[in-house]
Structure formats: C-alpha cells, structure tokens
Amino acid sequence: MKNSQLYKGSLNTIIMKLLEENGRMYGYEITQKAKEITKGELNITEGALYPALHKLEAEDLLDVEVERVDNRLRKYYKLTEKGTKETVNRLSELEEFIKNMQTIVNPKLSY
Amino acid sequence: MPLNNDQIELINSFLVKNEVVFDGVRHEVIDHIASDIEHNYENVAFHEAIKIVLQKWQSQIKLSESIWVSTWSSFPVLILKKLKNLLQPFGILFISLLIILSLLLSYYPAITAKINKNISYEIGYLTWVAISTGFGLNLFFSKGHTTYKYVFKRILYVIFMNSIIVFSDSANKDNVLTSILIINTISSIFLVKCYKAHFKFLKDNLLNA
Questions:
Q1: The domain made up of A4-110 is a member of CATH 1.10.10.10
Q2: In terms of CB atoms within 10 Å, which end of chain A has fewer, N or C?
Q3: How far is Cα A87 from Cα A4, in angstroms, rounded to an integer?
Q4: Which positions in chain B touch A73 (Cβ < 8 Å)?
C-alpha cells in the first residue's frame, strides 16, 4: 500500500465505505475499486486486505456470501446492519481527522 | 479468458502444499490469484503469470506461530491472523473471568453460599456438557475444514481442560462448580458463533456445488 503508515489506520473505514457504496464485493474487486477511485494512488496489498476483511467479519461488521463463478468459488463481503451503523460513525471520525490534519498542515485553508 | 479447471487445480494444490488448508480462506485466495492472472496477465503464459502472482503472496503464506492460536503448530500468516481474530476475544474473556471469579469466590465465600441455595451445579454443568458435546460431535463429523471448526475445537478443548484441572485440584467443589458453570456458559457465545458460521459456509458451498 502506498504511504502505508498514513493509510493503515483508515483501511477498515475505506473497505466499509466501498462496501456501503457498492453493496457487496469480493476481495480482488475491492483492491481494483480502490485503485480506480484513487487513480492508482491507493494500492491495497493482499497482506493488508484479507486480515482487515477477516477482522471486520469476526467483529460481525461484515457478512459473507459464497457463489460459484466460472469454475471456482467466490466469497462476497457485505455490511451487516451493525456494520452499516458503524460505517457512519467511522466515516464521521475520519472526516474529523482529515479536518484536523488540514488545520495542522495548512492552517490558512482551514479558515 | 477465465482460467481452466486444471489451472485452478494447480493453484489449489500449491496452496494446500503450503498449509493453506482451511476451505474458506483457500477459496478466496484461489479466486484472488485467478482474478489477478485473468485481468493483468492475459497475454502472458500461465506458468509465467502464476510465478509473478504467487510472489505477491509469499509473505502471507510464510508459516508462523501465535500463543493465542497454538504454540506447537505453525500456520500461514494469513490464516494465523484470522484464527487470532477469532480466538483472542475468547482468550481475553476466559482469562479475565477466571481471575475475577477466583478472587471473588476466595475473598467472599458468602456469595457462593448464597447462590448455592438456589442452583444445582451438578445438573447445570452436566446439561452444559451434554449440549456442547452434542453440538461438538455434529460439527466434528460434518464435512469441510473451516477456520470456525478449528476454533470451535480449540475453545471446547480449553473449556474442558480447565474444568477437569480446576475441579480435580480443588477442595471447595461448590466454589469451583460456580466458576466453571459461569465461565462455560459465557464462553458458549463463541462456540455458538463458530458453529453457526461453519454450517453457514457448508450450506453456501452446497448450494454452489
């Protein structure tokens, strides 16, 4: 992941936001969508994506659906009811964080 | 063009050989690797593409250990992290309850005496053993090898071992039965969660077979 230390803390929120917008997604699709939206700036690695998805699933924020696609099984992730509520909270926290960072990094723009 | 059955089987064999043995995780890694090859290496020979793609997974397939999962077995990092996510909350709750109840029942034996009048521990404990054994046997003999099945086994093993060790070691059976019953009942939340997740996975697989 590019600038991994900066993105790391927000990865779960990014995944939840993508799932909120797209309904349900599978692992590879999430990485491609993130890359597409950020014009290649955000590259979510396999090593970061799956532990994050599994953690969100263990916390009951994500639900899983398995479907056969071509000749293999595909695991889709979608937000649970609890996950949908949590996404709202985490996005508002992230927005607050971005606002504060902007104030620190570029004080003139914050007025 | 989608990969053919032989190519998918080759990826599957590679993962099994590298200890990615749990069905759910293996299926999603196979799908990710296959999707990556299909989208990014369409004009590259399969045997070359697979080498490049598998290189990205090296750090996740490397074997590792964690005290939360097992100190005598190694797992690929990807699986170890998932097992840790499932076992750590149980471990923390279990240890916390053990400490709190031990202290409480040692320093305030009157609490136990008061509860003793109302509850038959033997019946309560035997009921718990009967129910958990029934569900456990149903899960052990079910098809599929999922992370949830593994975690269920580990939690049940820890609970049973704790019950046997503490019970055989203690002079005050009432105190011990109180704590065992409380710990087992609360820990059952995790057993139920794993049981449901395992059978949901099997049901989804069956529908897509």
A1: yes
A2: C
A3: 21
A4: 27, 30-31, 205, 208
Phi-psi region of A74 (alpha: psi -120 to 50; beta: other; left: phi over 0): beta
| pTM above threshold 0.80 | yes
User: Are B69 and B177 in contact, with CB atoms under 8 Å apart?
Assistant: no
In this structure, the number of other CB atoms found within 10 A of the CB of residue B92 comes to 11
- Residue B14's identity, in one-letter code, is F
Measured between alpha carbons, how far is B127 from B120 in angstroms, rounded to an integer?
11
Name the residue in chain A with its Cα closest to that of B78: A51
Burial B60-87 (b: 16+ CB within 10 A, else e): bbeeeebebbeeeeebbbbbbbbbbbbb
Q: Which two tokens stand for residue B48?
A: 């070359």
Q: How far is A85 from chain B (nearest CA, A)?
A: 21
pLDDT digits (tens, 9 = 90+) for B51-100: 999 999 998 999 888 888 877 788 999 999 999 999 999 999 988 988 88
Give the separation between CA A66 and CA B53, rounded to whole angstroms: 23
- C-beta neighbour count of A64 within 10 angstroms: 17
Choose among A22, A62, A30, A69: nearest CA to B197.
A62
Q: What is the ipTM of this complex?
A: 0.88
Residues B195/B135, Cβ–Cβ less than 8 Å: yes
- Tokens of residue B85, six digits: 């996510």
